[in-house]
Design a protein that fits this description.
There is one protein chain. This protein has 211 residues and is of the alpha/beta class. Helix content is 50%, strand content 13%. The chain starts with 5 loop residues before the first strand and ends with a helix.
């Protein structure tokens, strides 16, 4: 995917959190980042610009997060939504499972996890960290109702697989594909799972037909 001028909107009512996320994101290649810390700022940004990805906290005073997600879907049907929250309660997960989101990361996770999520979503995939495994299972079940489980590899998974076949290690793959090391490691785990491989040699062998 072409990431040129990939526009991200970060919505969180804590300015320190917003600034920290923005500083992380603008280090990524061809990424711009706008922010909103309250409903008024958010409405102005939504009226004046469009965004490829919205990173959204669930606690925005003056706006219910369920209503906000639905609003974002109406305004940007092709845009992506990544939830970044401290709330990991089962009732929150149940509500999010009924909405069309593209990922969720806990604020208790490392910042590397957030960058990994953004990179996955930029590549057209969904990403849920370990705290939101039930959500990942919901979306996987939904997708597998249409696509047979583990039969298709994404474009990025094929690129990682091709690099492995060429003998590149994780750091070399990260530099080649302009990804974080954590993201490459996650792709490797996904490939091992999808192709039911026990080691890299078996992964490359089983993956030949996908390249």
């Amino acid at each position: 995917m072409n990431h040129t001028n990939y526009k991200i909107l970060v919505v969180d009512d804590h300015p320190i959190v917003v600034d920290g996320i923005r500083n992380l994101l603008i280090q990524q290649t061809h990424t711009t980042c706008a922010t909103a810390t309250n409903v008024q700022e958010l409405d102005r940004k939504l009226r004046s610009d469009t965004f490829d990805l919205c990173i959204l906290d669930l606690e925005i005073p003056g706006r219910n997060y369920l209503a906000l997600i639905r609003q974002l879907r109406r305004l940007y049907p092709e845009g992506k939504i990544l939830i970044y929250t401290m709330h990991e309660e089962s009732w929150v997960i149940a509500q999010l499972a009924m909405l069309h989101i593209d990922g969720a990361v806990s604020k208790h996770s490392s910042t590397a996890e957030l960058i990994t999520a953004v990179q996955f979503i930029q590549d057209g995939e969904k990403y849920f960290d370990a705290c939101f495994t039930p959500l990942a299972e919901v979306y996987e079940t939904s997708e597998n109702a249409v696509t047979p489980k583990h039969t298709l590899l994404s474009k990025r998974e094929k690129e990682v697989l091709d690099c492995l076949a060429k003998g590149l290690n994780t750091s070399e793959i990260a530099r080649t594909l302009l990804l974080s090391i954590n993201t490459v490691q996650t792709y490797r785990k996904r490939l091992m799972h999808k192709l039911d491989a026990r080691n890299v040699a078996e992964l490359i062998h089983k993956g030949e037909k996908h390249l």
